[in-house]
Amino acid sequence: MDSLSSTEENYLKALYHLSVESAGREGVGTNELAAYLMLKPATVNDMLKKLRDKKLVNYEKYGKIHLTAQARKSALGVIRRHRLWETFLYEKLEFTWDEVHEVAEQLEHIRSSKLIEKLDKFLNYPRFDPHGDAIPNAKGEIEKVARRTLAEAGIGEKCKIVAVRDNSATFLQYAMKVGLGLSSEIKVIAKQDFDGSLEIEVRRKRSVVSQKFAENVFVL
Amino acid sequence: MDSLSSTEENYLKALYHLSVESAGREGVGTNELAAYLMLKPATVNDMLKKLRDKKLVNYEKYGKIHLTAQARKSALGVIRRHRLWETFLYEKLEFTWDEVHEVAEQLEHIRSSKLIEKLDKFLNYPRFDPHGDAIPNAKGEIEKVARRTLAEAGIGEKCKIVAVRDNSATFLQYAMKVGLGLSSEIKVIAKQDFDGSLEIEVRRKRSVVSQKFAENVFVL
DNA sequence: TAATTAAGTTAGGTATGTCTAACAAATGAA
DNA sequence: TTCATTTGTTAGACATACCTAACTTAATTA
After folding, report:
1. Which residues does strand C reach (CB under 7 angstroms)?
2. To 5 degrees, how large is the angle CA B54–CA B60–CA B62?
3. Distance of alpha carbon B8 from its chain centroid, rounded?
4. Which of A92, A95, A110 sits opposite B107 (nearest CB)?
5. Other CB atoms within 10 Å distance of the CB of residue A217
6. Splitting chain A (220 residues) into consecutive groups of 10 residues, what average pLDDT does each group show?
7. Between the CA of A35 and the C1' of C30, what is the distance in angstroms?
8. pTM of the model
């Protein structure tokens, strides 16, 4: 049970995210993973062999990739570290919503279990990160929450943002421009049947957002 | 002015520390640097060529190694990050004196100037780290403080620890066993001319420490 | 000053993680 | 059902950062 390199951790994390996103489909493919990691399929293929030898993925030539139970736990460990650091950056260092991800991407690879448990305590054991995503616990367990998107909300409904699907800076900056932040109250004013776009009101400010945007906002 | 790899940063930091320690001598040698970094001289020699090509060191075959002004600034940047993280770990996360170094050694390589400036602010612009070492400012300037070691203190004198020379866990754990912490008051009870060892009293507890130990404790 | 030792260098090798170019298998549309 | 397209694989290269073994230069001391 030797420890993983940052690169290996990134592969496992990517595989975890992809397997959650594509729940229903039968697994993750080489090209899909390569695109996600912004690497070439050949590179990913090489690494896959290594991960298979280390018993971190089940995968055979031309087949789909599946994380082993052990690797899934490791992936959740990385995600735990990532989300705790995001919470730290947002709550303690006053980073904005869209700035936390990039730095957390580096911090998540610091190897020290003591560090992460102390950080968890310092942050008072947060359950969600600044994007509303659940933080896995030290045992590698993650809360599963059924979520509804803004796109599913009815006209006149008031709802509260609990999370976003897309953590890219582009999306988050757009969200901020519209006036959205975590815990913002949104009121649905109108809905276009034609393209699914919505008129919404956030802090007395009205905006029109596309269906695509609305599908990326989870509400309660 | 491309950015440095973690490895390169470690070389520059090491060279800075060695050049400060050996102030007076004419420079740092390959073997000395290799021993400090726990690498083989051949490895260091390779890297030195690379650093020379990047104009980070002045050095010619069989000669001594000197940091360029630019590299010195980079080294101080790394030291700044290291010491700010140590302060964070000690003050906010309740790490002990001897635990901070190892983790800070990893955290110092996180690349984000925003992060470090926000951290500095969060810590309320500390001037010294938990070992009493000055924290360089954002411009790469460091306070020079003339220091006296415990070994130079006279019998009957009371002094206060302001820093330690050796940050190894071994030394720090020994120091804690003797009852020393930063800001501890020490009283010198007796001194042996024979081997320079001292009898000291810290928080009503008496201990005998060697001259070597005393030379590693800076006092005011 | 010549011989020995210490310090520094070179050549060639390894592992990790990336790439391109060429090829093979699987999929799906005509 | 065949053939074009997509998907995945292999082989060979490269950069980084390490190593060992053999060598050279410099320093020390007898």
Report:
1. A 5-8, 38-40, 42-43, 46-47, 50, 62; B 29-32, 41-42, 45-46, 48-49, 61-64
2. 140
3. 18
4. A110
5. 28
6. 90 95 82 96 96 94 94 96 97 91 96 96 92 90 81 78 76 77 76 79 80 79
7. 30
8. 0.83
